[in-house]
Amino acid sequence: MNWPVITPLLIFLLIIFAVGFWSNKFVIKSDSFLQEYFLGERQLGGFILAMTMVATYGSASSFIGGPGIAYTQGLGWVFLAMVQLATGYFVLMVLGKKFAIVARQYKAITLVDFLKERYKSKAVVLISAASIIIFLFSSMTAQWVGGARLVESLTGLSYTTALLIFVISVLVFVIVGGFRAVALTDAVQGVVMFAGTLILLIATIKAGGGIPKIISSLAAENPNLISPFGAAHTLTPAYVSSFWILVGVGVVGLPQITVRAMSYKNSKAMHSAIIIGTIVVGFIMLGMHLIGVFARPILPGIKVGDTVMPLLSMKVLPPYAAGIVLAAPMAAIMSTVDALLILVSSAIVKDVYLNYVKPHASDSHVKKISFGVTTIIGLIVILLALSPPDLIVWLNLFSFGGLESVFIWPVVLGLYWGKGNKYGAITSMLLGMGSYILLDRFYPNALGLHTVVLPIIISFLGFVVVSYVTHRNVINQNSKEV
């Protein structure tokens, strides 16, 4: 084993464990297990909120796949990636104070709690919970495969052993510490991601002889590598602008991000999070994708794009520094998968079990069920990840677009449009899910746009038209109930 590289990673994991066990005292002392375990008692400050959103959004794609694609596409992919700069700003500005206030009024702990109270519909709750479980299970599996691959490449251990080490590390602190552990470790991981990006960017520029020399080398190899249209002119304006919907505006509809927008303690924390989150996301996305492009003259001829980041770290940094930098993708993967794990667990326990199976369960019973469900989910993901699919990146993006197509309008229009009702929400969710799956399977990138664009337009029209048509019926129903 390469101990100079592995030692910083082990120290990083020990810090994560320490935070998880420290957070457990809040779970033990809390008067409300559900509020603490799934939402951290709504006490996140600005810095923690910003970093947990950054860390949850940043994933294996940001640190492994992104630099790999930038390596092959050139500066055009850096331009494409930078549309993510406004992600945190959009999420907190669109949802912002109104979502936090309404969520508190509803006593909502999960996104489904909010939808349940807003639309008063069992169908909305069940469709929501099913969507979260289906889409996030595949996304979680993809992330855990990515984590296992990274441990495997660094240690030389077998894939199965690497997978078990990674899964046990994540499960222990999520099961013990709950949402507060996830949010706090996200903050640690966000700092590691920022520092790792900075160190590797400086080392890469130095190894390439400076930015002017690197740009000259890229232009000499292929002038398109320094154009905004990609190495093969495939990055058209229509595709770039529609990609912005998937990784920018559409993120408002992701449950794992939305739940963080209801967990801050006051408006000051939210405003701080908008500034900090935008700066940190912008720096990480710009830095990691520039690193991918700048690696091309330093390490020419790499066939597998996903190996660019680990190979470059080993090439341009001393072993111990490479270990610190490689803790960044480990942090990104862990922070994403722990957020997904707690979210799927809450969908099963809070949204389905407590709503429709055992509504009056005692706190101690809920605690046992929560720990048990989280453990079972982890074991199922281990089984799924033992035989990883070849295209985990596309599996992950499929989950991303699917969740956005289902949730974006019931959340946004549910907050800001009084005429929106349960019939519109159900129609929107079903149209979004169905059209996304069909287009992804049979007609991807229709009209030169990313697959997520048309389902979001279709689900919007479905929500508005059906809500208008049924508006009078809903008023009559409400009058009879009163």
Instruction: Describe the largest sheet.
Output: none
Give the proportion of residues in helices. Answer: over 70%
Q: Span between N and C termini?
A: 70 Å
Secondary structural class: mainly alpha
Helical region count?
Answer: 20
Would you tell me the overall average pLDDT? 78
Number of strands: 0
| Alpha carbon gyration radius | 22 Å
Order of helices and strands: HHHHHHHHHHHHHHHHHHHH
Low-confidence runs: none
Could you say which overall geometry the principal axes of the C-alpha atoms support?
A: globular
Proportion of residues in β-strands = under 5%
Your description of this structure?
It is built from 20 helices and no strands. The relative contact order is 0.18. Helix content is 79%, strand content 0%. It is globular, with a radius of gyration of 22 Å. Helix 3 crosses helix 10, helix 4 packs across helix 16 and helix 9 runs antiparallel to helix 18. The model has no long low-confidence stretch (mean pLDDT 78). By secondary structure, it is an all-alpha fold.
Structure in a nutshell:
By secondary structure, the protein is an all-alpha fold. The chain contains 20 helices and no strands.
Considering the chains and any ligands shown, give keywords for the structure.
482 residues, 79% helix, globular
Task: Provide the fold topology.
Elements: H1 3-29, H2 33-39, H3 46-57, H4 60-73, H5 75-81, H6 87-94, H7 96-106, H8 111-119, H9 122-155, H10 159-207, H11 211-221, H12 237-247, H13 255-258, H14 267-298, H15 308-316, H16 319-357, H17 363-386, H18 392-416, H19 422-442, H20 453-481
Helix pairs in contact: 1-10, 1-16, 2-10, 3-10, 3-14, 3-16, 4-5, 4-14, 4-16, 5-14, 6-14, 8-9, 9-10, 9-16, 9-17, 9-18, 9-19, 10-14, 10-16, 10-17, 15-16, 16-17, 18-19, 18-20, 19-20
